[in-house]
Design a protein that fits this description.
Distance between the termini: 23 Å
Radius of gyration: 35 Å
Structural class: alpha+beta
Largest sheet: 6 strands, mixed, barrel
Shape: globular
Strand content: 15-25%
Strand order of the largest sheet: 3-4-9-6-8-7
Number of helices: 26
Number of strands: 21
């Protein structure tokens, strides 16, 4: 043996069982940090994919800039790609048509399609003057393919023929309104613009899109461009979603998100330090006699301190890779779930993605926290007297100023409480270890409320397809809904009828919008709690235009003019009585005083109209584009040119993907924190008992029973849990309030409320974990003889 440090691997082998708990604690700390950083990295990747998917891979859009200035911007070393863009009929209000279907017309350069938007699905960019690029839905709407000729009709009635050079990937807007987007070269667009507007297109009629290189400071580049070309803020639009994910957004709300993330990650690092510090402190306390023997053999205090630090680093060799690997495993599961839940949006997200930031954070935090946490135990070990090793009393010698209070408590309970309060430093570490879990849980729980406000999940009434009339008239025959409902690939069909009717209420002339629901929609209202349900809802469903009895309706919630149960609205064809309030209604007043929801029979009796205004369709999972085309053709045969068809599948996919990705991120964080809290509590209590196991052995030797020892450990654990919950609430609730103000109040003005559910969940986790933590050490002591307990090392 060349030095005392050679004892480290030998000690590790001899105390392998005892060191498992310390190793587990380091693994959990590294796992916590690595997982949260990796999950955050993957969430940023998924949000970047979503931002590009929704808006394109551009960073700024500049208006009113000359072509000379634009060419200079394109030559900047920090610019990756740029393109001019112009559009006509973006709102689809003008009479542009392609083979009879409404279209929006865009003039672009090839870099916009190939690099910035990256939405070329098949074929090639329309470089020739008689070529155009169409969105893929044109295949279904027009029945065309690459190489076919189509006719563009402009508002003046003139026509132009073009050849299809390719198809671009569909976007949400065109799919939702069943329209086609036409892309043509900038030169072709300029000729079309001149023909339509009888004037030459200028630079002010176009927008210049810029994509920066990823390794540059985009915020600085944007500011430089504004200053150099004297551009006002209103002339430079930013892709806020993409810049926000990349960390370069100038939006104050996004800045608040960055600050909130930094605060939470500081608490994550603090959690790692406290967990490891508590573990090392217990480990050193358990081996006080060992360090005293080293002092007897001539080791100096500095050597003991170095021994403890290097021993802790030696544990890192196994603990850090294990913790990082577990973090990667959780990240892979997350990525796989995202790809499974929303394959269209997250197809580019790798299942076995490796987060370098997560690995580095876990490794660095593991080493740094071990070094920081080992400092105090190292000093404690270096102060052990050589006499301690031969005195037979290697435990810490604490002055007892006051005996345990047994006046109101039983002896074992009083000893447990007294033992917890005796070592102030250990109490502080254990309390901090418990409290940090509550602080983290309350801090991250704000993102649940944020998620439900920022990302609305799909409602049960959200359709995949909708069939309506262009002027919103109520003329759709119910036979069409029945015919569509009989198709094998259709899950359900539900229609609604709309009518604005004049009425009186309490002597006042009013206008109400009457909307009919069928059984599916009434069922969802009851299931989701939007209406009271039961007898009140049944009254509405059974109302069919009785001239003698009451005709019941639901009143959509109107904060400005609330209708109460029993209020009556008198129409020319009968009196409508409010049965209940409908608190979730996806329709606007649009000039009416109230929205009233009734049965289809009552709608027909009041209005004399037995048709639908809109038919909503939900498809089976195996429905294809050909099936959608068949439904579109059925609707076109019935309504002709008045058809307004909407395909919302792409929009629903984006909404579902966005919600699922953020939900996995948020609930994954909370689950990891709760799991770490449980393991940390169980491990900490086990190590605390192991550090004082000789004391428990001495108690057993003087006659204390196993049941009393168990209750004593339970009382000690109760002190740690109570102090941890109290401390966690004192720090965690202000943190929750701060996060609420940063994330929610600043955007939606919602007042803060006590997080009862989140607080109850984490307190329950701590309570159950504390109860489980008592069982393991008590069982271990029970299975050991008194002699083994006293001589335990």
């Amino acid at each position: 043996m060349k030095s005392y440090l050679s004892l480290i691997p030998i000690s590790a082998k001899v105390h392998r069982r005892q060191n498992k708990m310390t190793l587990l604690c380091i693994i959990l700390a590294v796992f916590l940090v690595s997982t949260i950083f990796s999950m955050a990295d993957m969430e940023l990747r998924s949000q970047k994919i979503r931002a590009i998917y929704d808006n394109g891979n551009w960073h700024i859009a500049i208006q009113n800039i000359s072509q000379e200035d634009a060419s200079l911007i394109a030559q900047r070393p920090d610019v990756a790609a740029s393109s001019w863009y112009a559009v006509m009929n973006y709102r689809l209000k003008e009479n542009y048509a392609l083979n009879g279907s409404k279209v929006a017309i865009c003039g672009v350069e090839d870099t916009l399609v190939n690099d910035i938007m990256n939405n070329l699905g098949s074929g090639e960019f329309p470089y020739k003057k008689n070529q155009i690029l169409l969105t893929e839905n044109a295949k279904d709407i027009l029945g065309v393919d690459i190489g076919d000729t189509v006719t563009l009709t402009i508002p003046s009635g003139g026509t132009m023929n073009f050849t299809i050079s390719g198809f671009s990937i569909n976007n949400v807007l065109t799919s939702k309104v069943d329209a086609i987007a036409v892309f043509m070269s900038l030169h072709t667009y300029q000729n079309l613009f001149a023909a339509v507007n009888q004037k030459t297109m200028t630079d002010s009629d176009m927008t210049y899109y810029v994509q920066f290189k990823e390794n540059c400071n985009m915020r600085r580049s944007i500011q430089n461009i504004k200053e150099e070309y004297q551009l006002n803020d209103d002339k430079v639009g930013e892709n806020t979603a993409l810049l926000g994910v990349l960390g370069f957004s100038s939006d104050s709300y996004m800045t608040g998100l960055y600050v909130a993330a930094v605060v939470l990650f500081l608490f994550v690092l603090a959690a790692g330090v406290l967990m490891i510090a508590s573990s090392l402190n217990s480990s050193v306390s358990r081996r006080t006699e060992f360090f005293g023997m080293l002092r007897c053999l001539g080791a100096e205090p500095k050597q003991i301190m170095r021994f403890v630090r290097l021993e802790a680093l030696n544990w890192c060799k196994a603990a850090i890779p294990a913790g990082v690997f577990l973090g990667l495993l959780v990240t892979w599961i997350l990525c796989a779930m995202l790809r499974y839940l929303s394959p269209g949006m997250f197809a580019e997200l790798p299942v076995f993605g490796v987060s370098l930031s997560g690995i580095i954070a876990g490794a660095v935090v593991g080493v740094l926290t071990v070094l920081l946490a080992a400092g105090s135990p190292a000093k404690k070990a270096s102060r052990v007297s050589p006499l301690t090793a031969v005195s037979g009393n290697a435990g810490p010698q604490t002055k007892i100023r006051r005996a345990a209070n047994t006046r109101f408590l039983k002896v074992h309970t009083a000893l447990g409480l007294h033992h917890a309060k005796q070592n102030k430093k250990n109490l502080l570490l254990m309390t901090g270890s418990f409290a940090i879990s509550i602080i983290l849980f309350l801090g991250f729980s704000v993102f649940v409320d944020f998620m439900h406000r920022a990302l609305n999940p799909l409602q049960p009434y959200t359709p995949d397809l909708s069939v309506a009339v262009s002027d919103n008239s109520c003329i759709i025959d119910k036979g069409l809904a029945q015919e569509i409902d009989e198709l094998d690939y259709v899950k359900r069909v539900y229609g609604r009828s709309f009518a604005d009717i004049s009425a009186t209420c309490e002597g006042r002339d009013v206008t109400v919008t009457l909307i009919s629901y069928e059984e599916n929609q009434f069922g969802w209202a009851e299931q989701k709690g939007w209406a009271a349900g039961g007898e009140k809802l049944q009254q509405v469903m059974d109302s069919g235009g009785n001239t003698v009895g009451k005709n019941y309706v639901l009143a959509a919630h109107n904060m400005a003019q609330p209708l109460q149960e029993g209020d009556q609205i008198v129409t020319d064809r009968g009196t409508l009585t409010v049965s209940d309030t409908l608190y979730q209604c996806p329709f606007d007043l649009a000039g009416s005083d109230w929205i009233l929801v009734c049965s289809e029979e009552l709608f027909t009796a009041i209005t004399g109209n037995d048709n639908y205004t809109i038919i909503d369709i939900q498809l089976e999972d195996n429905a294809t584009d050909a099936d959608v085309n068949a439904i579109r053709q059925l609707a076109r045969d019935s309504l002709g040119g008045r058809l307004a068809f909407s395909d919302q599948r792409l929009s629903n996919q984006e909404t579902r993907g966005a919600f699922f990705s953020f939900a996995l991120f948020v609930y994954g964080f909370l689950a990891i924190i709760a799991m770490i809290a449980a393991f940390n509590i169980i491990n900490s209590i086990s190590m605390s008992v192991s550090a004082h196991i000789k004391q428990y052995g001495a108690m057993r030797a003087v006659g204390i029973e196993i049941g009393q020892l168990t209750k004593m450990i339970g009382a000690e654990t109760f002190v740690y849990a109570f102090c941890g919950i109290l401390s966690g609430a004192i720090i965690g609730l202000p943190l929750h309030y701060y996060m609420w103000q940063m994330l929610i109040a600043s955007r939606w003005n919602d007042p803060w409320h006590f997080p009862a559910s989140a607080f109850a969940v984490i307190v329950l986790v701590i309570g159950l974990s504390s109860s489980a933590a008592v069982y393991g050490p008590a069982k271990r002591i029970r299975e050991m003889s008194v002699v083994d307990v006293i001589s335990h090392e």
